[in-house]
């Protein structure tokens, strides 16, 4: 049963799993910035496995700061999405209209060492979430997928019709692919489901305030946070993984997208749910359509930060591809969305976050 107060339906809620993390926290911020009053509640569930909470605080730092930035309240529950009972209580407490599902483990290398943990969290967690949604009659879902589902590109740019699931090299990547397949099957079995799988290219950047941003635990695996930590002096040099790829300067080329553009893509995707007749499973790329090489990223970050970024070329990283970038036509057509932030914005905003918060959300 959906919760009601004296027979009157309570304010609709958007349930955001993993909303304390990097992409989730920026999406929550954009959702709150877009509403003038209290049209809907934001309910975040997160087990804090990859989000930081200060001693004595109820909410993780990211959410606490968002409340300050937006002057709005976020409902927060510390729970694991595999805990069906805890999740059910959230659906019984709030009038959940739709779910944006970010919660997952995402370290590619770690997933090779701990496949069961990754499949359990990413696939098991997603199944429990969807079972709970069905139990409470909630059928609108936005899923955080990845361009990794395309594997080694057979053609570029990568359009949504490109085959998926071929040649995937990590349990992480496979978990994203398997979840999409499960969602397809589910939406065939029951026409009530409306599922939008957003295939992110490479999210970078931070909120323009520089108050929230990406805060990886340990040494970053991904390029942008690594460069930022070199610039701020936490790491001594960037290791560039190979300069013998068939790309203009030999280093890997990726489609980096500002996390605020990505967040806006989620807001636009939610609007699709209101379109008459919209149902089933839909995969949509979120990228800019433009690729930049590792050395172009280093140069852009140096210009934005005014800091030198020492780097050394080493061998290729296992599982890496030479080039990928997105075909953005479907996102333009279906969502009326396009990325507007430039590479300079991505670097400037990352630098604002990193230089203001050299230790991420931890103050010491
Ligand atoms: P993140 O680690 O910063 O955020 C994920 C959040 O989910 C964290 O706060 C973590 O504590 C939480 N979480 C993890 N497992 C959970 C569980 N079982 N129950 C409850 N909470 C749990 O990661 P992110 O970069 O914000 O990524 C968000 C989503 O986007 C993930 O699904 C990821 O696979 C996907 N994605 C990310 C990228 C990227 O480069 N950041 C690219 C493509 C897709
Ligand atoms: C990574 C993930 C991929 C995920 C994507 C999302 C791996 C193997 N793959 O891919 O599953 O979907 O992020 O954003 O982690 N690079 C360096 N030095 C570094 C780090 C990276 O040279 O220290 C290079 C890489 O070789 C690559 C580029 O920088 O050419 C971007 O790397 P990264 O940020 O890890 O992203 P992806 O490789 O696209």
- Name of the CATH first level: Alpha Beta
CATH T-level topology: Rossmann fold
| DSSP helix fraction | 25-40%
Tally of DSSP β-strands: 15
CATH architecture: 3-Layer(aba) Sandwich
- The span between the termini is 46 Å
Radius of gyration: 20 Å
Return the string of H and E elements. Answer: EEEHEHEHEHHEHEEHEEEHEEHEHH
* List of distinct ligands in this structure: nicotinamide-adenine-dinucleotide, uridine-diphosphate-N-acetylglucosamine
Shape: globular
Average of per-residue pLDDT values: 96
* Proportion of residues in β-strands: 15-25%
Number of domains: 1
The CATH fourth-level homologous superfamily: NAD(P)-binding Rossmann-like Domain
- Would you tell me the structural class of the helices and strands? alpha/beta
Give unreliable regions as ranges: none
Number of helices: 11
Structure explained in plain terms:
- This protein is an alpha/beta fold.
- The protein is built from eleven helices and 15 strands.
- The radius of gyration is 20 Å and the shape is globular.
- The termini are far apart.
- The strands form five sheets. Strands 5-4-3-6-7-8-13 form a seven-stranded parallel sheet, with helices on both faces. It has a two-stranded antiparallel ribbon with strand order 1-2.
- The protein has a single domain, classed as Rossmann fold (3-Layer(aba) Sandwich).
- The mean pLDDT is 96.
- Helix 2 links the parallel strand 4 and strand 5.
- 45% of the residues are buried.
- It binds nicotinamide-adenine-dinucleotide and uridine-diphosphate-N-acetylglucosamine (UD1).
- The site of nicotinamide-adenine-dinucleotide has 27 residues, from helix 1, helix 5 and strand 7.
């Amino acid at each position: 049963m959906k919760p009601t107060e004296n027979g009157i339906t309570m304010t609709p809620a958007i349930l955001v799993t993993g909303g304390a993390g990097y992409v989730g926290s920026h999406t929550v911020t954009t959702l709150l910035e877009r509403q003038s009053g209290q049209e809907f509640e934001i309910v975040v569930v997160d087990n804090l496995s990859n989000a930081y909470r200060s001693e004595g605080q109820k909410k993780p730092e990211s959410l606490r700061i968002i409340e300050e930035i937006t002057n709005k309240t976020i409902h927060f529950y510390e729970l694991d999405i595999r805990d069906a009972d805890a999740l059910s209580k959230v659906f019984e407490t709030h009038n959940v209209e739709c779910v944006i599902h970010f919660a997952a483990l995402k370290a590619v290398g770690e997933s090779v060492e701990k496949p069961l943990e990754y499949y359990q969290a990413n696939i098991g967690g997603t199944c429990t979430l969807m079972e709970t949604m069905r139990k409470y009659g909630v059928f609108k879902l936005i899923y955080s997928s990845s361009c990794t589902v395309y594997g080694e590109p057979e053609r570029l740019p990568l359009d949504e019709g490109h085959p998926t699931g071929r040649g995937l090299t990590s349990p992480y990547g496979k978990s994203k692919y398997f979840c999409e397949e499960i969602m397809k099957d589910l939406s065939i079995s029951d026409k009530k489901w409306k599922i939008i799988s957003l295939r992110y290219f490479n999210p970078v950047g931070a909120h323009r305030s520089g108050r929230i941003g990406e805060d990886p635990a340990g040494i970053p695996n991904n390029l942008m946070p690594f460069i930022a930590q070199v610039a701020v002096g936490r790491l001594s040099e960037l290791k560039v993984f190979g300069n013998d790829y068939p790309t203009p300067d030999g280093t890997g080329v990726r489609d980096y997208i500002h996390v605020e553009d990505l967040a806006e893509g989620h807001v636009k995707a939610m609007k699709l749910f209101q379109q008459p007749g919209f149902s089933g499973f839909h995969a949509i790329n979120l990228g800019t359509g433009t690729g930049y090489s590792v050395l172009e990223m280093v140069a852009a970050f140096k210009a934005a930060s005014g800091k030198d970024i020492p780097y050394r070329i080493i061998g290729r990283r296992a599982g890496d591809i030479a080039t990928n970038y997105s075909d953005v036509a479907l996102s333009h057509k279906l969502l009326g969305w396009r990325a507007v932030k430039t590479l300079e914005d991505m670097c400037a905003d990352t630098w604002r976050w990193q230089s203001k918060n050299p230790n991420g959300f931890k103050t010491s």
